[in-house]
Every structure is written in structure tokens, then in C-alpha cells.
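At this stage, I put together one protein's amino acid sequence and its C-alpha cells, which the following lines show:
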Amino acid sequence: RVPLVESGGDSVQAGGSLRLSCQAPGYTYNWSMGWFRQTPGNEREAVAVVEPDGRTKYAEFAQGRFTISKDNVKDVLFLQMDHLTPEDSGMYYCVADQALVATMTATFFDHWGQGTQVTVSA
């Protein structure tokens, strides 16, 4: 399959916002998709997932600050991140799996992008 390609990572100050995008041709319509991140010294962790029917799930740290969405026409997955803190710094990955119900575990997703770096300074 065509690889997932993330973009939108940048360096911002605490309190700022970023919008990550993932080009996902052929994935968005009937695949579960999501965002994971790996922060320094930690394993990869789920940020948010969206199932084919549009249902979303968020990690506790993302609730109220991050919003996952997708454009099924343009085949793009988004992650809007607001009120960023230095603890949000890390590599953010777009993921996909051909399943109707998604779990918030890294091993569940078969397809991963290369990642986009987010750096939040105090």
C-alpha cells in the first residue's frame, strides 16, 4: 500500500497550537486510523484514534486539547493540538489498520508513517 506521510510538526511555545496532517490515500474511508506519539524516554503511546464510522477515542492527556478528524474525500487524517505543553514534545506517528473497531495499543495498528517531530518550549 501507499505509505502514510505525516506533516505539520514544528517548534512552538507552550500554550500554542499545531495541526498535524497525514496523507493516507486509500485508508480513510474504511480503515481505523489514529495518532501515536513517542516522547523522550517513553514508549509509543496512543494519542487518538478514529474508527471508520467516525467514532473517536482519546488518551486522557489528549481529551479537551486535541481533536482527531479525517477528510474521506481528500484522504487526509488530521490532529489539531491546542494548549500544548513541553510534555507534548515528541515524534508523532500516523497509523492505520483495516478494522472496524480500534484499540489504543501500538501493536494493534499494522501501518505506520515515518513520523513528524513536535517540539514545545516552555
